[in-house]
Amino acid sequence: VEIRGGKPTFCRKYKYVGYSWPTVNEDTQEALLTALQLLENNEIQLVQLYYEPVDFYGHKFGPNSIERKKAVKDIDSLLDLAQREMASRGLLDKVNMVVLSDHGMTSTDSRGLSVINLNQLIDMADIRYMVYYGATSMLLPHDGKLEK
């Protein structure tokens, strides 16, 4: 996608981790090392890497699951590798590494879980559009019904 006249120099096709990407750690490591080489050679100025297993396994098995904990250890090892490689390439004072998450995660077992029944709080006839009906939802009321 072009943004202000610029396009990415390199872009890899996104793979959904699911159960069909057994080499996710090796592929992420290879992408990381390639990116560091390109940074070292001043061929690129920005790298964005996405590591999905922590999110995937947290949603699939829960935040306290063995699978999610292993994924956290795996990304920790990859981040450690990134720092060691940046140091060995003389990039520590030249590259800023920022680690982001799009959301947190918590267990939602039935003990202590509060359920909010929207039907008891609002008149669903006042809602023009609703996205999702579960742990999260988005509501768009009809005109004039927002304050109600």
UniProtKB/TrEMBL annotation:
It holds the Pfam family Phosphodiest. Choline-specific glycerophosphodiesterase that hydrolyzes glycerophosphocholine (GPC) and lysophosphatidylcholine (LPC) and contributes to supplying choline to the cells. Has a preference for LPC with short (12:0 and 14:0) or polyunsaturated (18:2 and 20:4) fatty acids. In vitro, hydrolyzes only choline-containing lysophospholipids, such as sphingosylphosphorylcholine (SPC), platelet-activating factor (PAF) and lysoPAF, but not other lysophospholipids. It catalyses: 1-dodecanoyl-sn-glycero-3-phosphocholine + H2O = 1-dodecanoyl-sn-glycerol + phosphocholine + H(+); a 1-O-alkyl-sn-glycero-3-phosphocholine + H2O = a 1-O-alkyl-sn-glycerol + phosphocholine + H(+); glycero-2-phosphocholine + H2O = phosphocholine + glycerol + H(+); 1-tetradecanoyl-sn-glycero-3-phosphocholine + H2O = 1-tetradecanoyl-sn-glycerol + phosphocholine + H(+). Belongs to the nucleotide pyrophosphatase/phosphodiesterase family. Its EC number is 3.1.4.38. Keywords: Cell membrane, Disulfide bond, Glycoprotein, GPI-anchor, Hydrolase, Lipid degradation, Lipid metabolism, Lipoprotein, Membrane, Metal-binding, Phosphoprotein, Signal, Zinc. It comes from the Eukaryota. GO terms for molecular function: glycerophosphocholine cholinephosphodiesterase activity; metal ion binding. One of its GO terms (cellular component) is plasma membrane. It is a lipid-anchor; GPI-anchor. Its cofactor is Zn(2+). GO terms for biological process: lipid catabolic process. Signal peptide: none annotated. It is found in: Cell membrane. It comes from Trichonephila clavata. This is glycerophosphocholine cholinephosphodiesterase.
